[in-house]
Amino acid sequence: MSLISRSRRAALLAVTAAGALVLITACGSKAATAASSVASSAVSAGSSALSAAGSAGSSVVSSAVAAGSSVASSAGSVGSSAGSAGSSAVSAASSAVSSGTAAAGGALTPADIAAAKATLIDPAALTICTSLSYKPFQFTEKDKVVGFDVDLVDFAAAKLGVPQKIVDTPFEGIKSGEATNTGKCDGAAAAMSITAAREKVMTFSAPYFDANQALVVPTASTAKTLADLKGKKVGGQNATTGLDYLNAQKAADGFEIVVFNDFPTQSEALLTGQIDGAVNDIPVWNQIVKDNAGKVAVVAQFNTGDKYGVGMKVGNTALKKVIDAAVAEAKANGEYDKIYKKWIGDLPKK
Prior knowledge:
This protein is of the alpha/beta class. It has 13 helices and 14 strands.
């Protein structure tokens, strides 16, 4: 067999390998792995073909000094075809890997899902603690718990292939880590701000919501700041960052703090005139203002940098990975924006 024939044969083998690769359908991470393996073989074949063609071309060129340049030209053409075949194989492999990654649903693997499910206290559900009522994040409507946090956690439950089961419990037990570390719940979603103190007693998801504090007063009040409420009663909710803020400002502004165990009693006290003002997260006050038009108003906001996170048992990184991936995917595909508009309103300007 002549050197030219051998190089043509090598080129045909590379082209065949590349053609076979294109037929692979990228469906999930297994397809991507198979595509990468075949691509590697095809590229290797293309490389061998190029080498063989190059050698053949070189030999023929040496022998063609007397026979003329036409043979050398043919050898060069064969080498070029082999190189093109290898390039096509690489391109096809790249497309297969890309499609496989998309189909796999981000960075999560079946092993990641299995590891997270193994941590569930009830294998048939994702059990989440919350503190009712904290509209629009979690509250009861027609005997069903609904809200922004509920819809958010549903993204993670869907990844795990189980429904979300909600347990109502006092916020003090949630923020202390008791609810998750004692096995009462797998996680806690209660419009809970991530703080250094809380990070010592629970593992948090990545932040999913920005929320600062607000001062709300009756519409008849002339107060615009906490300092204007000197000598007056200002309500705070137990175990919240809003109460922390009030405690930090009390000495300077001279108001009296009244502590309530939950938001419903705090907001009711404001609406019925038991206190002169109240501090809590902006989104829940906006809801109260909306539901009680003309009775109370937000007069000041405090940029505390609060960011909500889903709390889990200390060290439960397996569940954290699934929740983080589910929320990131929801933000990427527009589902997060939908629930934001549904429960909160207009999206914040970026």
